[in-house]
Specification:
Layout: E1 8-10, E2 16-24, E3 30-37, H1 40-55, H2 69-80, H3 86-104, H4 114-126, H5 132-152, H6 176-187, H7 192-203, H8 207-212, E4 218-219, E5 224-227, E6 230-235, E7 245-250, E8 259-262, H9 265-274, H10 294-308, H11 315-328, H12 333-340, H13 345-352, H14 357-364
Antiparallel strand pairs: 1-2, 2-3, 4-5, 5-8, 6-7
Helix pairs in contact: 2-3, 2-5, 3-4, 7-11, 12-13
Length: about 375
């Protein structure tokens, strides 16, 4: 039986986990090591040896193939620190600490098998009830860590990671009638926020991009929008005031996301009507010292659609609707892909293009009965 203060706990999988402070980060935050055992006594003996090895600087026996998978997770994450954006790094860290290290971290790397990976995937889907998309993201990180582990131990057998099958859900897209009704609503008593929502519908901007957009990013002469930044709310582990999250305004999602979007004449004129004298002012607030974060804009969007009588519509629906309208009027896919900031036209076609029944019927009418 574990005693209070020992940091030894029985896990859901039946094993015992013993935690000890291995080191401290530059900010004074504790970095933990983990020992696992089939019994409480085994876990306690392992953590005692680990603490002693740390105090007397004795090399631990967990090296190479016998090294715990959790340690390889930590090494892989450390290497990613300077390679990815802060938001991506925090996503990786959450996946490792919340899922992978808890389920697989205690195994020696030579004990990992396809069966254990499949059991992990099955548990995520059916016990934790995570969506197939979330499970696929977690397994993608697992695959990357396994590849890193294999590079450090070439004699290990590679482990295949099989992703769960995902049913493609049809994304909600505004019909022409719904879009017309929603546009008319936005024009009525239009304010800066409604203007921003309409601009997103007319350009396909993501919610983080529209929140970070300033008037300096819209060129009156060239009639273009320069997408240079995005806004998102992230966890803030270093905050000393008790706040758990922070707003981060940073470079867009990817290199392709930093892009130039041309404006048609009508949209350009609308921008000029709402342009503020201060180029640093955010378009959603009209002020340089006050922004509107994505969560607040989502709440506004919910109110707008509710007042319009539209159901199942959220902010990303605007982006899908924009892409669909472009295809319906004959847009060239490569150009559309670049306007949306996708890495390839394939993503545009698979995820963002939704043909209406009317468009399908129109295309069917092009086929002759007799050849």
């Amino acid at each position: 039986m574990s005693k209070k203060g020992e940091n030894i706990y029985k896990r859901k999988d039946g094993r015992w986990e013993a935690r000890y402070i291995r080191s401290y980060g530059a900010e004074g935050t504790a970095r933990y090591g983990y020992c696992y055992g089939k019994t409480y006594q085994e876990a306690k003996e392992k953590v005692t040896r680990a603490r002693a090895a740390m105090i007397f600087q004795i090399p631990t026996e967990e090296t190479g193939r016998k090294k715990r998978f959790a340690l390889y997770c930590d090494e892989w994450l450390l290497l990613k620190r300077s390679q990815v954006k802060e938001s991506t790094y925090m996503k990786y860290e959450t996946i490792l600490n919340k899922h992978m290290k808890l389920a697989l971290g205690g195994y020696a790397v030579d004990a990992l098998t396809e069966i254990k990976v499949e059991e992990f995937s099955f548990s995520l889907l059916h016990k934790e009830k995570l969506s197939p998309k979330t499970v696929k993201d977690i397994l993608s990180v697992l695959r990357a860590v396994l590849n890193y582990t294999l590079k450090q131990n070439p004699s290990l057998r590679s482990i295949e990671v099989i992703y769960p099958k995902t049913e493609k859900k049809e994304m909600r897209v505004l019909s022409w009638e719904e879009q017309k009704h929603f546009t008319e609503y936005l024009f009525e008593e239009m304010d800066a926020c409604k203007f921003g929502v309409l601009l997103a519908l007319l350009t396909g901007l993501r919610i983080g991009e529209i929140c970070a957009l300033r008037w300096a990013d819209i060129s009156e002469q060239k009639k273009v929008i320069y997408v240079r930044q995005t806004m998102q709310r992230l966890q803030d582990k270093n905050n000393t005031e008790g706040r758990k999250t922070k707003i981060l305004i940073s470079y867009p999602k990817s290199n392709k996301s930093a892009r130039i979007i041309p404006l048609n004449e009508e949209t350009a004129q609308l921008c000029e009507q709402w342009r503020k004298p201060d180029p640093d002012a955010y378009i959603l607030t009209g002020r340089a010292n006050r922004y509107m974060e994505p969560r607040t804009l989502q709440y506004r969007m919910e109110r707008y659609t509710r007042e319009c009588g539209l159901t199942g519509v959220h902010f990303h629906t605007l982006r899908h609707s924009f892409a669909t309208r472009c295809v319906e009027v004959g847009f060239e896919i490569k150009s559309l892909s670049e306007i949306l900031g996708h890495s390839s036209p394939k993503i545009t076609l698979e995820r963002y293009v939704h043909s209406s029944l009317e468009l399908k019927r129109k295309n069917m009418e092009k086929l002759p009965v007799r050849y």
